[in-house]
Amino acid sequence: MALNEDLRELSRIVFSYPAIDNHAHAFLRDECKYAFPFEGLISEASGEKATRDATFTMACFRATAQLAKLYGLGPGADWEAVKQRRKDIPYEQLCRMCMEPTRIQCILIDDGLGTAEKMYPYRWHDQFTGSPTKRIVRVEALAEDVIKCAIEAQFEGPEGGLSPSKLLHTFVTTLEASLTAAATDPEVVGFKSIACYRTGLDVTITTSLVEDTAVLNQMEQLLTRMSLIHMSNHPLRLAHRYLNDYVVNVTMHIAGECGKPVQFHTGLGDNDITVTKSSPSHLQPLIKAYPNTKIVLLHSSYPFTKEAGYLTAVYENVYLDFGEIFPFLSPDGQRQVVREVLDLAPTNKIMWSTDGHFWPESYYLGTLQARQALYEVLEGSVRRGDLLLSQAVGIVQRALFDNANTLYNLGLEPQWTG
């Protein structure tokens, strides 16, 4: 009887305790809600064939059943029926229908996804949470804006243009000023790097950008590309080893001085990632070089969760986020990842996120499935006697709320009715 009471209490807390979503993205605007294929909800795959294949995954089968229930459809509804039903629900109602059950108290939004014109500003999401939404600054996007502004200025300036050497100087000074301004902005609680997508996580430790041939050649390439971009209005994408590594290093330095964590995309992503360079183990030199800068390994580092847990266990400044696997993995896969997170990582250094983006359903599924996986793993440990109820409850509270509250210096109290 005592065990059953313990498990009921654990269930009550897992499914009702307020959460801080420590990494997410904005909703699509109402007028842009069909801008991207809805299959992006259950897969990072791109291309018509790949997204069609995604509907045959365990992740999609489960998401279909859960969304069908949310929308009031019958148990036999398929993916197409779910897609059709959501079109019939007014967008504001759909957003509230998805967000109210999540018990998300605060969202930390990376608003540098590159589709800002199609998405709501981060503070718009306050209507769904008990505490104000905060920003995570994507540093590669910031660096791209710095370069773009510097180069575009030449088109409006006197004749003679901008030399690679001058562009390099402008880039360095403006980037440092912009990062410092962001780090001291109370609305900004951290930074994020997508080096994983650009040149890989094997970041070289560097403290300056010297005017050597390789760096100046990259600046010259940017000048040439930007001349074309200026005429075609296409976005700039910074993917140059020396420049990208410098952006990460200067971010680490400034973030450490200002006490702001730096999130890194690790592991799970789309086909733009080189999988072999997405393991967090590549970050070990950077972790050692900046011991005063807190690093958050995002997305469970899947499929490199064990490596991430190891780094979290042996380095004081490394934290592990278990997100994005909800709803991208099967139920068994999710439970296995949560087990691997708990294998070695100190439970005062793990935190949860939805990686919610575009669709309110991504927040709904990301929360529902995470709570289910967390309960099922901890329930097994309590049942076997590996954990006391109080220890399991402590893990839940730290993972869902306390750790992120402390790391990002949010100063929140959990708004919990029990």
UniProtKB/TrEMBL annotation:
Signal peptide: none annotated. Pfam families: Amidohydro_2. Residues 251-388 form the Amidohydrolase-related domain. InterPro entries: Amidohydro-rel, Metal_Hydrolase. This is Amidohydrolase-related domain-containing protein. Gene3D superfamilies: Metal-dependent hydrolases. Coiled coil: none annotated. GO terms for molecular function: hydrolase activity.
